[in-house]
Each structure stands twice: as C-alpha cells, then as structure tokens.
Input
Amino acid sequence: MVKVAHVQLSSCCGCLVSLTDTYEKLLDVLGAIDLVYSQTLADVREVPDDVDIILLEGSVCLSDHHALETALACREKAKILVALGACAASGNITRFSRGGQMSKPVHDAFAPLTEVVKCDLAIPGCPPSPESIVAVITAALEGDMDYLEPYAELAKYGSEACGCDLIVKVINKSLCMGCGACAAACPTRAVTMECGRPAIDKEICIKCGACSVQCPRIRFPELIEKIE
Amino acid sequence: MDPFGSYKFAISARATNNQIRKKSQDGGIVSAAYIHGLESGLLDGVIVADKGEDFCAIPKVATTVDEVLSAAGTKYTTSPNLSVLKSAVREYGCDKVGFVGTPCQVQSIRKMLKYPVGYRHVPDKIALIMGIFCMENFPYNGLKTIIEEHCGIKMEDVAKTDIGKGKFWVYSKWGDVKTIKLKDTHPYEQHSCHVCMDYTAELADISTGSVGSPDGWSTIFIRTAKGEAFYKAMEEAGVIEIKNIDDVKPGLGLVEKLANSKKDNNGKERAHRKEIGLPLPY
Output
C-alpha cells in the first residue's frame, strides 16, 4: 500500500481541515493509502524514513533551524514531495511576516517550501479545495502525470503567486476575456470584476495563487477538452 | 479542422412558450431550459447575464422564472458569469446550478471542474453547462461607442441589440432601429477574443445559437450524456418545439462556415502572437 504522510510547518491547519473536508471521499482516500504520519489523524511521533508521498503543509521559517531540518528531512524521506496549500506552494500570507509576532518575535523570515527544497508537486489555494487534494492524491497513486503536469509546473515556478499575476500574465498580454473565474476562486474576495476585468485589492490579497491558477488563459491543459 | 467539436446530435428548436419567445433573443432555448429546470427541480439556481443600468451586463444567480425572463436576450458585452458561481453555492445554497456562457466561459468552467483549486464543494453542484455560439465580444465601453457614437442611441434607451445579416442592430425603447455594418464594429472587439478557436462552445453539455436556423429558431448541439438527459426532459415536457436540422434553412452549413472562419482567422492570429513572442493559453 502506498505510504502517505501529512507534515506541518508554519501553517494554520487549514489544508488539513480541507483534506478531512472530503467527507466520505476521505474514507476512500484513507482506504487506498497507508497514512504513516499525521499529527491530527495518526498517533505517530516520527516521520518514517521511507514514505511514498509526503504532503507538506505550511511555509518554512528560515529563522528556525528545526523547520529547515524538517523540510530537508521530508525531501529525503519522500518519493513524491507535495507542497500542500498556498503557504508551502507560494508563501501565501506568511509572505507578509516581518517578525514581532507572539510568541516568537524573532521569527521574521518565511519562505515557501518550494523555495527551500525541490518539490515534485505544489497545490496552491488557501486552502486548496478538498476536491483538488483528492484529485492530486488519486492521480499520484495512479501515476497520471498528464493530469499532474500543471501542479508539477507550479512546484517549479509557483512562488510569485498573487493577484498581480492576473494583471501581468493575463490582462497585460491581452488574454483576459472577463470570465470571472479568478474572482470566484479568490478566498478573500480581493478580486472583483470591473468592466469585465479583474480588479485586485492588494490590501486583501494574501498571495494564495488561486486566481491565476484557476485562469484558463494562462494554463489550459489539453485533457480538459476530454469532457466525456 | 473539426468545426463543431464532438456532439451527439444537432437539431433546430424554439421555446413553445410565447412569453419566453417575446423576451428572448432567438429561439429562447436557454430561457426555456432554465425555466424548465427550475420548475421541474432539475435545477435550483441558474446563472444569467442580467441587464444592468444603461444596458450593461451583470452576472446574477436567478432562482425564479421572472428573474430568468428579465435577463433574457443577448448583451454583446462581457458578463463575468463565473464570478458568481461560488456565491450560487454558498450564498444561495444551490445544489443544482445551471450555467450559461460564451465558449471561453465554458472552457473556464470545464477547467474549474478538472482543476478546482479555489472552488471548494462547487464542482459537484454544476448540473448543466450551456454554451452560446460566439464570434467575439465587446468590452462595455466598446459597445457603448458602437451604440452611442455610431448609431446615435443612448445606452439608457437601448431595448435590444442583435447581430444578423452582416449588421449590428440597435433597437431603442422608443421604436428607433439603427444599424452599423458588422465590419465597422471590429475595431471595438476585445482582442482576447482573437486567440479563441471555439465558435460553438465545444465543451458545453448543450450549445445553442441562432446561426443555421430560421428567424426565431435556434440551432442546438447536444454534446454530453448530461446534456442529452436534460434535452430529453425538455422535449418530453413539451417546452421546446423541434425541427430536423437537415430540413431548415440555412442549416448547419452556415454554422460550419462561421466556425471555420473563426478557427482560420484566430489560428492566424495565434500563429502571429507566437511569432512575436506573446503567450498563448497552453
């Protein structure tokens, strides 16, 4: 059975909640895998050495050597390392941290996992939807690399995620046709549609990347066209 | 090149309900499908492009027949229909959402279904995807320039717009009818439409548009099992009147001609963009 671990670094547990929010599908997922480590769902203290898939949630606090060691250890132990959620994929709200916060005021530097170690897949979104987590785990179990390709690409280049992507990559390239997929995907309602184009409130954007990941005018994998 | 994408069968049809036909653009297929869906319980919420102030288009979640009827008709300007998709599920609590959109919007919702990163618990609530034939669209201010500068009708006075017989038509609330040659509207199209290779909403469950059918009728492509089941339910309920597509004029030949001309022209534009280093959706 495929061994899967869920590991957390600097995060809010939202991705784990999203994983469990799959309801009955969670049972299918758990039935298809051997969950070898998960702080909330399994009573295990150490991440085992040989894991097939590690879902790592959260960003890496560069001012904390434990976090760096965990990130490196997960890379070594995992056949497939998945940056789960926006903090791990692109930094998300931890991008705005500049120290001073309780209870560790000296923790002032946070980087997404994708910038610290090489990740195989990254699932952005704050949190990513349960459906997308299940789809990625299922595709990874089946070795469906065609489906996973966009997630593999985000693991390599996904670290700039924010509403500005829409302006730079889509509107400035005369590709936006005003469908509104970005506005609906935004978890904080930072994206609104004005005159058929997204307007981004930078005060509210948390850099989760959901808007640009959801945009069909950046990435439109061919397999989407297989509708039946 | 395959002009229409995959489909099970095509027909020509119109809504049997006079009230729908009076308000709708052509055969009233989208309104008829939505109203049948809401009344039969196949759908509990539908996304429409409603008429806002000064004839702008505003996406809206409609849950009643009146709301569907008041939104009927084509606006020829951008209506970000996907932007209200999540609120249909969250705020309106809909479990069976009907969606209608242009081919690009249908592509967008298909991407959402396959890669639903930011759409928690939305994919399984999409009950029907309808697509409308589309050659290109205008930004609101582009449409405004066409209607106010070229046709001399104020946006606040517009009752209906239409495209047909090589012309863009504007009907005012006071009975004026003005036209502009379609080729004179090209400068006001949004450029992003020129990378689109899809005329007939190839990824929809059901696609519809006026082209190919006589005035007051619509051409329909049934593409998926879901689309077929919904179409059959409409047919059985008698909400649409049907003709064999081979028996109507001008028929599928004209749809094919237009679909191919969109693919040819935009294929060239895509090649040009590639040549000068501009990105394309990949």
DSSP finds eight helices and eleven strands in chain B.
